[in-house]
Specification:
Blueprint: H1 2-5, E1 9-10, E2 16-17, E3 19-22, H2 32-59, H3 66-83, H4 86-95, E4 98-101, H5 102-135, H6 140-143, H7 146-172, E5 181-182, H8 189-195, H9 201-234, H10 239-267, H11 276-300, H12 303-319
Parallel strand pairs: 3-5
Antiparallel strand pairs: 1-2, 3-4
Helix pairs in contact: 2-3, 2-4, 2-11, 3-5, 3-11, 5-7, 5-9, 7-9, 9-10, 10-11
């Protein structure tokens, strides 16, 4: 972080620029108040939904299982992920373009990518957890014990931190000669690279390889896990059980397709300067829509969670 603070951006005329300008959505800025209210409500709903998941998982002993351990960890990551960009977006909707310091821009970019990569790897782990639970229910408690779950989460976070730190260090070593206007609502990787006056081919290729590796690894593991789940579901004797399981899997896959699709559109292309304008709209899917849907799809529709919420409400009434 100190390295970024000591790296002023040299403009073409020799003056030092200490900040970037986040452009936001100039074409719809006249609707700023309405967009502010819509995104504020979506943000608060997302934070509330994820906070409820974390709270009931911690206080209800019946939800202290591997599945809810992963879901609560995912909720914490989602809260931090959205909070890294949405507050700045809300300010942009209210006041228009916003400045962000050089150091703060790189810190925001790092946090966003690090948490995003951690979420993708954790999605793969969650898929494997469900696969083991459905395909091998008798061995599930032994395979997915607390130590294994903790190691898997730690591995996701550590791997993401290592990969994204290396990438952002490479990006921070580029020269920035102006302009300093970022055509986005946060400091995303593509717009940052596009602003550099250095030869960015090696950095672009590194970003492409890393993002493709993370997305592809997560996607392949998820597809294999869900394929195994579907095979198991087909063999269920009860038609009602099959219908219920397929409904759950299909809702999960809809959310996953939104997440993977938008990220592939934004990041998996060798030339990061292409389609920067459309990247803003795609980024809203990841930062606003899917964090809002995830608590509903993964947890809040679950009967166990409904029962846990009722137990928690009863305890609160009794304590009063």
């Amino acid at each position: 972080m100190l390295m970024w603070r000591e790296m002023p951006m040299e403009m073409g005329n020799g003056t030092t620029v200490q900040e970037f300008l986040l452009e936001g959505f100039p074409a719809v800025q006249h609707l700023g108040n309405i967009l502010f209210l819509v995104h504020l409500l979506a943000y608060l709903a997302s934070i509330t939904g994820n906070a409820v998941i974390v709270t009931i998982t911690c206080v209800d002993s019946q939800l202290q299982t591997p599945m809810y351990f992963f879901l609560s960890t995912f909720s914490v990551l989602e809260c931090c992920f959205t909070s890294s960009v949405i507050p700045k977006l809300l300010v942009i909707f209210l006041l228009g373009r916003q400045t962000i310091s050089f150091a703060a821009c790189f810190i925001q970019g790092f946090i966003f990518l690090f948490l995003g990569a951690s979420c993708f790897l954790l999605i793969a782990v969650m898929s494997l957890d469900r696969c083991v639970a459905i395909s091998k229910p008798l061995h599930y408690p032994t395979i997915m014990n607390l130590r294994t779950c903790s190691l898997l989460v730690t591995a996701c976070v550590a791997l993401s931190f290592t990969l994204i730190t290396g990438l952002m260090v490479k990006v921070s070593q580029l020269s920035f000669c102006g302009p300093h206007v970022i055509p986005h609502f946060f400091c995303d990787l593509g717009p940052l690279i596009h602003l550099s006056c250095s030869d960015t081919r090696s950095v672009e290729m590194l970003a492409f390889v890393l993002t493709l590796s993370i997305l592809l690894t997560s996607f392949i593991i998820t597809i294999i896990a869900y394929s195994s789940i579907v095979i198991t579901i087909v063999q269920l004797p009860s038609a009602k059980e099959r219908q219920k399981a397929f409904f759950t899997c299909s809702s999960h896959l809809i959310v996953l397709s939104l997440i993977y699709g938008s990220c592939v559109f934004i990041y998996v292309k060798p030339k990061q300067m292409n389609r920067l304008d459309s990247n803003r709209e795609a980024a809203l899917v990841n930062t606003v829509l899917t964090p809002l849907l995830n608590p509903v799809i993964y947890t809040l529709r679950n009967k166990q969670v409904h029962q846990a919420l009722r137990r928690m409400m009863c305890r609160m009434k009794i304590s009063k």
